[in-house]
Design a protein that fits this description.
The complex is a heterodimer. Chain A contains no helices and eleven strands. In chain A, 38% of the residues are buried. In chain B, the strands form two sheets. In chain B, strands 2, 4, 5, 9, 10 and 11 form a six-stranded mixed sheet that branches. Classes of the chains: A mainly beta, B mainly beta. Chains A and B meet through β5, β9 and β10 of A and β5 of B.
């Protein structure tokens, strides 16, 4: 079974610019997550989708971050404008519907803000 | 507020040794406790998971020990190999707060030849 696909793998931008990340979850997985992993820390949830509806976006900085899940499959996460503290790895994960278990992660997009 | 506290931050063992990584939690609503392994440049990969009604679970060389009364759980890696050198994360999930995993800060493990 193909895993969670993410692109791009790396992105370097200047502060105040915008950036977008793309995720394709494991086929058939109803639940999709975006996590932010700052260097030296564990992943932290930004937003969770169940099919194409938002379940939890309480930790998403909504003044600059936005996300959508198109037709309940692929998802994009956007940052506009980026700040220095947004430098991190952005991980996408997916799980079958129902319990959120197990969650499988993609390899992430490493974002560097100059 | 860190909901899952993980220790140690780093660990060095010789090949064949048994590294032990510990995690503690406060939220008694947590009902699912996975461990993830992460190599540099890769995403976290699920290793093994346990529920609080089980005190121990083994999968290959990996064992989780769970102490519900102490609200602690730990990962043991039997016969550790240099290829096990990675960062390990414990996590916990509550059933009534969406499905978000609450991660520890990670343990960097180095297994020397």
């Amino acid at each position: 079974e193909a895993g969670v696909a993410q692109s791009p793998r790396y992105k370097i931008i200047e502060k105040r610019q915008s950036v977008a990340f793309w995720c394709n979850p494991i086929s058939g997985h109803a639940t999709l997550y975006w996590y932010q992993q700052i260097l030296g820390q564990g992943p932290k949830l930004l937003i969770q989708f169940q099919n194409n509806g938002v379940v939890d976006d309480s930790q998403l900085p909504k003044d600059r971050f936005s996300a959508e899940r198109l037709k309940g499959v692929d998802s994009t996460l956007k940052i506009q404008p980026a700040k220095l503290e947004d430098s991190a790895v952005y991980l996408c994960a997916s799980s079958p519907g129902g319990t959120g278990e197990p969650q499988h992660f993609g390899d992430g997009t490493r974002l560097s803000i100059l | 507020q860190q909901q899952v506290k993980q220790s140690p931050q780093s660990l060095i063992v010789q090949k064949g040794g048994i590294p032990i990584i510990n995690c503690a939690y406060e939220n008694t609503a947590f009902d699912y406790f996975p461990w993830y392994q992460q190599f540099p440049g890769k995403g976290p990969a699920l290793l093994i998971a346990i529920r609080p009604d089980v005190s121990e679970k083994k999968e290959g060389r990996f064992t989780i020990s769970f102490n519900k009364s102490a609200k602690q759980f730990s990962l043991h890696i039997m016969d550790s190999q240099p290829g096990d050198s990675a960062t390990y994360f414990c996590a916990a999930k509550a059933p009534n707060s969406g499905y978000a995993l609450n991660f520890g800060k990670g343990t960097s493990l180095l297994v020397t030849p």
